[in-house]
Amino acid sequence: MFEVKYEKSQGLTDTPLTYCPGCTHGIVHKLVAEALVELGILDRSIAIASVGCSVFSYQFFNCDAQQAPHGRACALATGIKRVLPENIVFTYQGDGDLASIGIAETIHAANRGENITVIFINNAIYGMTGGQMAPTSLIGQKTTTSQDGRDALHHGTPIKISEMFSSIDGVAYLERVAVFDPKGVINAKKAIKKAFKYQVENRGFTMIEVISTCPVNWGMKPIDSMNWAKEKMLPVFPLKIFKDKGDHNA
Amino acid sequence: MAKVLMKGNEAIALAAIKGGVDAFYGYPITPQNEIPEYLSKHMLANGRVFLQAESEVSAINMVYGAAGAGKRVMTSSSSPGIALKQEGISYICAAELPCVIVSVMRGGPGLGGIQPSQGDYYQATRGGGNGDYKLIVFAPESIQEAIDTLKEAFDIADYYRNPVMVLVDGLIGQMMESVDFDHPVKERFIPTKDWATTGTKDHPGRRNVANSLHLDPALLEQHNFHLAKKYKQVKKNETRYELINFENPEYVIVAYGTMARICRSSIEMLKEIGIEVGMIRPISLFPYPEVAFDLIPESTKGILCCELSMGQMLDDVLIANNGRKRVGFFGRAGGMVPDPEEIVDAIKNFDKKVVK
């Protein structure tokens, strides 16, 4: 006698993921998909894929989707949400897309209190293009465009998106989570689900920053990348609920 | 509705509302500000969407999103602002989404000036976006023609699933004329937008995706073939031009928009001194009315291309002429608008104006 104990979320298509072994994109995709299914909003959701490793996410989320130019995901999301306010609109963006080229679009969407959800993957590097320095790369971090390590005097310091966005009035929920251990994954799921729930309740802009790994471009084994994220990234990017307006507005 | 006296930009904005625009996303820039200003009041009052974006880049991408969601969407801007929209325009063409873009040209390059110009002919017809794509471009010469074109533009965009640009200059945007909003425009068949990303609840069993990425070169080439076939259809069906005083012209002027209006006066002045000059007035800039050049009589001595630029449409005139006649050029730029007498002089001194 067999029974199904665990299966792939209905929120994901059958298209094989294109992510590298050990990369945490797959985990985050699963969490987003589960949240959409559990909240019963998958069939009215519209995913916005960005440019970077997650460029193909429009093939992975089992809902309607649009593929945005580099950095413009929040502009597309705004355009859609304003004409389809009953739909659930979310972007899935990496640190190059969101924190570098798309920072204006993201800040202003947040400031307008656009009722959208942003899943922000911070792995401190450009993955798709082959490991170049990101605005979130750590001081001393070696990348293909900072081969002697990121130098604060030359490149500035890692940009702290969640800290920055915490001062924006339009933000309803903002949390930084990490997915390098089971406890973190469970908490990340909770945060992502809460963000979508807030969108259902029209509370405003929600963003979940996910501290992620990029073993291939970091030049590490997956297990070492998990440890590196924990030891090196968390001191710079502490896990925290930066903003939760929901309870006050309930 | 009786004729009303309206400023060009405001008339364009009202025509968009009458054309059924659901959403407008824009960013301020002179000389088109009256379009978003008018819409900011009247769109919201009619339960439609108006949003001032943080940049032209963002505005055109909001257009992408809402167009992908199946709505009638518009943006407007002027020269440097249209430059910033080029990225989005390429993506929208690639993803085959319909929208209307109003471009109110000012002098350039760079920040240039804010007076009328036609220096963005290349920008409109060649574009600054990447890849093999085409905008459908109409260049009205009056406010009446602008509002008629605008109403039709939404239908044409929906029909071909391609952006339509209505290209005017600051003069048409800023001047006032009496216009009739009930002027009939061509009725068209508009296919259902069953491709729109409105959630799978509206189309169970099928995911709708607006996308421009095709990493497999064989598939991308198929997409390029498909787009090229569509542009060929556009060329066949949407080529528009007007022939003026074409019975037996000694010379033929080619001019569009504001310049064509000035040349109308020049043609009358030339008639009085016994020189018959005809005009081809391209209304569609893509598709370019090359066929009109086949109608130029054998006896015509030459073609004078007149523009408010240093010669951009001139390229298309040379292509369409295909070496048959001598081609001259007259242009003013930087926001300087010529008197009709200047074109009269150019015709009288045609030999000195010949470029090829």
Task: Walk me through what this model shows.
The complex is a heterodimer of chains A (250) and B (356). Chain A has 250 residues and is α/β, with parallel strands linked by helices. Chain A has helices at residues 25-38, 57-60, 73-83, 95-101, 103-111, 152-155, 161-165, 182-200, 215-218, 222-236, 246-249, and strands at 45-49, 64-67, 88-94, 117-122, 171-178, 205-211, 240-244. Chain B has 2 domains: 4-238, Rossmann fold (3-Layer(aba) Sandwich); 242-353, Rossmann fold (3-Layer(aba) Sandwich), CATH 3.40.50.920. Helices cover 39% and strands 19% of the residues of chain B. Chain B contains 12 helices and 15 strands. In chain B, helix 1 (8-18) packs parallel to helix 6. At the A-B interface, strand 1, strand 2, helix 3 and helix 5 of A face helix 3, helix 4 and strand 9 of B.
Q: What are the main properties of this structure?
A:
heterodimer, A: 250 residues, alpha/beta, Rossmann fold, seven-stranded mixed sheet, 17% strand, globular, B: 356 residues, five-stranded mixed sheet, 12 helices, 15 strands
Query: What is the number of helical segments of chain A per DSSP (H or I, 4+ residues)?
Result: 11
Mean pLDDT of chain B: 97
Structural class of chain B: alpha/beta
* Strand and helix order of chain A: HEHEHEHHEHHEHEHHEH
Total number of distinct structural domains of chain B: 2
Uncertain regions spanning at least 5 consecutive residues of chain B: none
Roughly how much helix do the residues of chain A carry, as a percent range? 25-40%
Give the low-confidence spans of chain A.
Answer: none
Biggest sheet: strand arrangement of chain B = 3-2-4-5-7-6-13
Major interchain interface with per-chain residue totals: A-B, 34 and 39 residues
Our estimate of the beta-strand percent of chain A is 15-25%
The CATH level-2 architecture of the largest domain in chain B is identified as 3-Layer(aba) Sandwich
Based on CA inertia axes, which overall geometry of chain A fits? globular
Count of the domains of chain A: 1
Distance between the termini of chain A: 47 Å
Give me the count of strands of chain A.
7
* Gyration radius of chain A, in Å: 17 Å
Which CATH first-tier class of chain A would you pick? Alpha Beta
